[in-house]
Amino acid sequence: MALVTLSTVYQTIFISLLLLLSKGWSIARSSLSRQDLSTITLMMGAIYLVYSAFYVSINIEGMKLFISVILNALYLILMVIVLKNASETRNLLKAQQRCIHDNEIDQLRGSIDLKVGIMTKFIVIAVFYFGFELVINGLIPSVELAAKQSTHSGSQSTYNPWEEVIQQYYDLMIILCILFVFRSRKWPEYFTVGLFDGEAADFNSTIE
Fold it and tell me: Beta-strand (E) ranges in 64-121?
């Protein structure tokens, strides 16, 4: 029971971190709007509830496929949200980067180049993470379970500990990649100059 609780809390916190980073938190802006924080809070609740239901339904054959489909749909929605937010943040930084380069503002060039590079790497990491979750841990097990139920197979599903080991090592690799991309370093000058919502709206209107 403790392991199930720990895994549920871990997934909730990890996905919440991805949502925060996709909005450019600590990179493009130092704070988020109340609407963004409310959305992230709702997603945290949804993740916690779905994972709790998933672990409860493991030994219930009739519920396992249904909860698996719900979990896959949730991960698909999360992938769309994270990649959409990260792409919008990167596009905003790219527009700012073009403006800085065109006006030859050398003081800001190093910081904006680093920010664009960080968000680009984050998008790649997010694609690998959600792709693995959807295909390896989502689509394939759901298809196998649906095929087993359609053939009315009475054999009990066996637990393969190596699948859990592979999952944990993959998650560890993703975490290490995120820590490496967002690692502490000697930041360029003016890197901490954030991009607030009002400033972002004004900047978008100027470049359009």
Answer: none
